[in-house]
Amino acid sequence: MSQQYYHMPEPIHYYPPPTSPSSIHPYTHTNPEKTSNYYNNNNYNNETPSNYYNNERPLNYYNNNERPSNYYYNNNERPPYESQNTSYMPPQNGYPPPPSFEQAMNSGSDDSKSNTRTKYQDLWAVVLFTLDLLAFIAVSVISLRNYVIIQRQNRTSVENVTLNWSTIWILMFCAGIGLVLSTGYLILAHKFSKQFIKVTFFLSIVMYWCFTVYFFIVKYFSLAILFAIVAIFYTLYWFWWKPLIPFSSIILRTITSIMNRYKAMILTAFVGLFVHILYTIWWIFTFIAAYQVWYPAACKQAKTTSTNCQTGQFTVIVIFLLFTYYWVSQVIQTFIHVTTSGVFASYYFLEGTPQGVPPSPTLGSAKRAATASFGSICFGSLLVAILQVIRQLLRSLAQDVDNPLGAFCAACAAVIVGYIDALLEYFNFYAYTQVAIYGKSFCDAAKDTWTMIQDRGVEAVINDNLIGSVVTMGSFLVGMVTALFGYLYTIIFHPSFNDGGGFTPLIVFLAFIIGFQMLSIIGSVIFSGAATTFVCLAEDPDALARTKPDLYNEVVRTYPGFAQGIRA
Fold first, then answer.
1. pLDDT digits over 247-281, tens only?
2. d(C-alpha 523, C-alpha 333), whole Å
3. Looking at residue 302, what is its pLDDT?
4. How many other C-beta atoms can be found within 10 angstroms of the C-beta atom of residue 531?
5. Three-state secondary-structure class, residue 140
6. Residue from 483, 491, 498 nearest 171 by CA
7. Is residue 307 a contact partner of residue 293, using CB atoms and an 8 Å limit?
8. SS3 246
9. How many other C-beta atoms lie within 10 A of the C-beta of residue 568?
10. From residue 499, how far is each of 159, 162, 492 by CA, in Å?
């Protein structure tokens, strides 16, 4: 009996035939046993099975003269995501990666035979970031040069009114504390997953309540109210999130297993941390020098400087330095995220395929992040940096305002901006995963990522994932512990510049920033793995089923809506 072939409009999907005419019914993933001679004119009688092709008979359904050239999938092609409207049985070894993913990988390749031209996205953000760095360098040079003059000629008088070099030891001490805590945090996440999540939640809740009580005792009511609100929310979240810990522990175990296989990702995080430490030290020197040079009380006593002793000028410089620090820190953190996301995507899409994972996926992903995707990195980081500066200004205002009502309003505004900032960072991580995989612009990646996630039904899986919350809480935890060490340093050693305790809030604030940024950079590897897992799950569920079947089966079992979404 000769086989008959059918022809459908693009894309063409191969449907394994049933064993007998009596088994004709809509094909789903539950009946993969259909084999041999399904399309037989004697059995088929020129009628389409009910609901098999959505009650529509495709054009040129029978073609008895020739077999369509595109009857089977071409290994070099794959239908776009939007056209996957039919359920089908995937090939045994899974589908090859999307063409755009291969092109994105070629953009960071040294292969001279590749005809793929690198497309640089969001170049305007690169230009703006470069100008910001140049401005920071200029402020740093002017501040340090004038500070040297002040130290030589007015050492005693200046040290009595403002910061001096002994502050560097405090902040470097805080940087060391942040490094130790962040490294230990990453090691514990790799060794223990379920216990790690529980301990992080518990310590975060306890720490928030301790700070709430402390600030009430010392009568910092604005901060006490702020920490009390956060502590109450996290206490309630614990009862809501507790049933989700087992699922999140599976995700964390999956991520750490891939990290253990490609250890260069961890090395990338530490290189990024080292770069961030060097930049932080440079920024600390610049900040101290700028404080000495432009702080009005010190500036008026330092007659040798050429700067103007104006409060407005000093305020602008401080805001600029804070903005630059946040922006550069975000760029470093996002660069690590895009690099590691590219490695995770390479594993999910290429593992088990004839092409295989490239020999140096981390290096290739880093090249793409530093070239084609760097503009998108700068763009998204700029938005986050602006919100972070606004939040810190509101927090400072809440501390300085004597009116309780005004302090409360400023604290509430800081909380609102903080949540907006957290939402933006949460969304950016998934958008940057698309940037890492396909080399899209930031806006296109943000739009396409969320649309794809909603269409696939993965948003329920993402909402129940606690990895991002654990990393964020860990960053706050490390930041608060580092700030506590900075505060204890000022209490125990009594620096000469802080005899009256006027600079204690500033030292604590800077110590918190250092500790928070330390773990944010290292923990971004874990967060990147989770974000990439979900985007790849939405983009190509079969690839995840091939590489990590335990996680895929757990997702399908726990979230039936997702299983329906991939068949839609």
1. 787 788 788 778 878 888 888 888 888 898 889 88
2. 9
3. 56
4. 29
5. helix
6. 483
7. yes
8. helix
9. 11
10. 11, 11, 12
Residues 513 and 479: their CA atoms lie apart, in Å, by 6
Mean pLDDT lowest among 111-125, 302-316, 369-383: 111-125
Tell the residue number behind the tokens 């994932």, with chain if given.
Answer: 465
Cα angle value 326/332/336 (rounded, 5°):
140
Q: How would you write 18-86 as a 3-class SS string?
A: CCCHHHCCCCCCCCCCCCCCCCCHHHHCCCCCCCCCCCCCCCCCCECCCCCCCCCCCCCCCCCHHHCCC
Per-residue pLDDT reduced to its tens digit, 339-384: 999 998 888 888 777 777 778 888 988 998 898 889 999 998 999 8
The Cα 418–Cα 401 span in angstroms is 20
- Per-domain boundaries in the chain: 1-75, 123-154+171-357+368-565
**Local structure of 5: helix, strand or coil:** strand
**290-324 burial code (b ≥16 CB/10 A, e <16):** bbbbbbbebbebbeebebebeeeebeebbebbbbb
| DSSP category for residue 457 | T
> Comparing C-alpha atoms, which of 204, 269, 179 is closest to residue 469?
204
221-241 vs 467-493: helix axis angle to the nearest 10?
Answer: 150
The Cβ-side half-sphere exposure at 356, using a 13 Å CA radius, reads 4
What is the DSSP secondary structure assignment for residue 496, as one 8-state letter? G
In whole angstroms, what is the distance from residue 344 CA to residue 337 CA? 10
Candidates 320, 332, 509; CA nearest to 414 is 509
Is residue 163 a contact partner of residue 503, using CB atoms and an 8 Å limit?
A: yes
Which residue type occupies 107? S
| Rounded Cα–Cα distance for residues 247 and 555 (Å) | 9
- pLDDT at position 456 over 70: no
Q: Is 424 in contact with 387 (CB distance < 8 Å)?
A: yes
Instruction: Take residue 263 and report the two structure tokens written for it.
Output: 């250890």
Q: Alpha-carbon distance 312 to 217, whole Å?
A: 34
Instruction: For residue 169, give the amino acid letter.
Output: W
Range in 46-50, 112-116, 318-322, 344-348 with the lowest mean pLDDT: 112-116
Q: Read off the tokens for 520.
A: 């944010």
**28, 4, 20: which is closest to 568 by C-alpha?**
28
- Cis amide leading into 90 (omega within 30): no
Residue 240 has pLDDT above 70, yes or no: yes
3-state helix, strand, coil in the chain (%, to 5): 70, 0, 30
> Contact at 8 Å (CB) between 526 and 467?
yes
DSSP per residue, 81-134: GGG--S--PPPTT-PPPPHHHHHHHHHT---TT--PPP----HHHHHHHHHHHH
